[in-house]
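ESCALATION

Customer reports they have been waiting on this structure for their group meeting. Please prioritize. Original submission:
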Amino acid sequence: MPPAYRFLDRWVVPAPIERVYDAIGDVPGYDRWWTDFVLRAKGDEGPPSPGKRSELLVKAYLPYKVNFGLEVIEAERPRRILSALSKDFGGSGEWVLEETADGTVATLDWRPSVNHGLVRYLTPVLRPLFRSNHEWAMRRGERQIREYLRAT
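Update from on-call: job pushed to the front of the queue and completed.
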């Protein structure tokens, strides 16, 4: 069985919930704003809906790249997107958005199982480093979605 992780990330974005949902839900557009992490993004255009597929090639600070697919399983605009993962990861990722007085809190419950050979092989020894790599990417994502939504 592949090694599994669980990450619970929380972004605070000073923007209306609909705008945050639209940015997070537009996976093929991630390479326009999450530039520190996403090397290539492609997939079905339009708002998230069951069956829509996307693919990302990403790289954080560690010297390896991962390629993973996302297929939307459930989407409830503007509150929730649940996706199944494929390629270098299995498992699921779920965004839940909440409107606050200061904007939007977007929480990602990311539960990948690792299919990527190098990461899978090294997880027993380097799990804390891989977790740090994920946290690095997510901190940049929060900063960059804020900048993107402020500029557009």
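Sent to customer with the following note: Residues 117-151 form the longest helix (35 residues).
Escalation resolved.
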